[in-house]
Amino acid sequence: MSNFALALLLFSFLLALAAPLHINPRDFDAPFLDCYDYIIVGGGVSGLVVANRLTEDPNSKLYIHFTVLVLEAGPLDDYEDFIMFPIEDGYGLGTEYDWNLWTAPQTFLDGASRPYDMGRGIGGGSLINGMCWTRGGSADYDAWKALGNDGWGWDDLLPYFQKECLPHSFHFINTDRLQTENYTDNVDADFSRELYIQPNISTHGTSGYVHVAYPRYFYNQSQLFLDGLQELGIPILTDPNNGTAAGGMLIPDSIHPDNQTRSYARLDYFDGFINRPNLHVTTHQHVTRVLVSVPHNLKGRDYPAGFWISGVEFVTDGSLTLHNVSCSREVILAAGAVHTPQILELSGIGSEDILNQFDIPVIINLPGVGNNFQDHPYVGVVYYFDNTSYVNIDMIENNPGLDNQAAQEYYANKTGPWTAGAINTVAFPSLPSISQNWTNMMTDASSQNTTLYLIPGLDRTVIAGYDAQKTILTDLLSRRDVGAYELLNDNIGLLAVAAMHPFSRGSVHIQSTNPYMQPLIDPRYCSNPLDCQVLVEALLFNNQLINTTSMRLLSPTPYYPFFQGATRDSLMPAISIGIRTEFHGTGSTSMMPLDLGGVVDTHLRVYGTKNLRIVDAGIQPLVPAAHLQAPVYAVAEKAADIIKADNSGLVLSGCGANSGFAGQGPVIANHSIISSTSSSVLVPSTFPEFLNSSVLSSMNTAQRSANPTSPLSLASGAVPDQLPVSSGVNTNAIKGAVSVFLNGAGILTSPPFLLSKGFVAPLTFPLQPSTVPAVPTMSLIHRARGASHTRHHAVLKSSSPSHRTTTSAPFSPTTFDTRHISATSASGVIAETPGIVTVKIAAREKEDGR
Fold it and tell me: Which residues fall within 8 angstroms of residue 370, CB to CB, at 6 or more apart?
């Protein structure tokens, strides 16, 4: 029998074993395979993208044999209204689809902790984000390249934003569905001119998995906001995603253009592919660490120096039993910028200073793990639009008849206010375009001592990496074609600001060996005062904006301390209280050279390992001036191609003694499992003890080269392989769309859109131990809908799905002021003082925003 025939026979056998499954999280005897080719930790955006691409059949019937396991800690959603409907944007925060994390006390602000929301479940952040689809500017990604990351500039990533044309070396990939983006220009020509929507289709994908389109309803406030920016000399961009991103814009959303529902990773990269026989996806599996081996029979190709990762250890929610599952090719971490460094540190990969605090044996001393953490500091400020001739969401939501009519319109023909999310119009102004003080600020930045505002005691490589970043940041903020901050506008009066290129650096580190305890998240907002200075300049610019001819039509009413007489000194205390996350944590496992504190190389391989990669937002060395979902999709698409290319020359059988991969060597701290019922038990308050470090000392000297006592060096670490390189409502907004809010016509009689149900009902996540300090209730400065719309409903509705009534009601807009709201529930009270909303919710206080 020929080798090819043997390969096909083995291929058929593997397919028989690899039946498609979505594993029930309560089935402790679920049919895991003993071994998978690839294990992906995290079923969010990046994890699902990579899983989808690794299991697709790219015109070669030999490729589908790869088996992939995805382990996700969260649930599978049930297509709840608050996930699917744009009008419910923000309702997912605080639910089971949110990790519901907290930051460390922010000592450079007011000393209080902040909520730190992150998506949790199949789809990750795309389940609950604001759906904003922005790529950022070309300068953002060219900055990545300037940090020593060849192949990661704008020109390199553009094919992955659109996924249309790929490098010639990836000829083996299926060309039927190459694209990520499925962009639809669904706005009528006349209306698109009013709102400056004139995209360059050549820079967009048009047949990909993720639908990118515009809502079928816009408020006149959007046009007035853009016109006001133009009065002040801010350019208006007709396509914010073509590489030029400094200016005002109406941004598209990740929504389906026809049914006007959320387009998210679960729908786009999972639902249509669940029957692939080589793809196993399971929920409610909490990965505790990766398993490190010393391989003894590497075959097939040269690997970089370092340890072999033989699999992962995990716990099913509701169980204390530890499970192991093995891999023959790679373990891929896609757990996000918070949980990926936690898994690495629990595995003995990280800074020896951190690991030694918890008596974790140092397998790879990698100082960059958990450091270089960045986020966009966000301040939500409302300048209430008091001209009630301009319809806004509060006027609709607080009028039951009007709200019911909006609901009927949405269910009937997918038009009207329910198609609009919280944010559509934004701006990314450059610092020179809004501040005369910018030269002084950049002079201060250039003259700063590198270590002055960093965490004390950082490794010299991490300091060197920040020094290189600071030079790039100073250059970026001095340019007129780079956005210094984001200005977010809605129809009520939100003019929120968020610094896009922060100089502050935080960290994410374990605070216990218990894998269920959240890591210590410390963004260290405004630890470098330049970030708060940028926000002050942004708020001062707001006062110019609301005085433009266009914006005065809305009768904006600022409140203390954001009134016209505001000064830099008077604004700083409000910023100190008001800063929150914009949900854009990055950098904690940065892609940079090792001598700059990097954690992964340009192939996204963790230094010191042969087969451990990271594909989530943590690898981004500088947070781009963008909402992160589009960059995360693009990075994951590129990562999948890198992984395929690196493994393309290997023999068919991945799991097996005769494969071109490593046979398993001794596993460090193995808890002897592949069976579904292990004797290893996770004690709730402690992580299982590691084997004595003498195990390490018995290893072959050559294999220990990746476990130095000093920071890993390029000589001993992984050497990257080289890859080739008017009622206030506008009319005729959408092609073919008819809205009763546009002309007062009756509801169309087309069949209502019905959402199908999911595979399994979401299960309640058990409470886990946490040492996040109790925080007294604090004042929050919300976005407008966070204050008067989203938060109002979130408290009253808790996490229950929305079931809106759809009875008929006449169109009867009403004029009233919704500025002062109050509501009570079993969980707490909403109270308000002008301009600042205070939310009291039992043990948790949350803010909505994107």
Answer: 341, 344, 345, 350, 351, 354, 507, 508, 509, 519, 588, 589
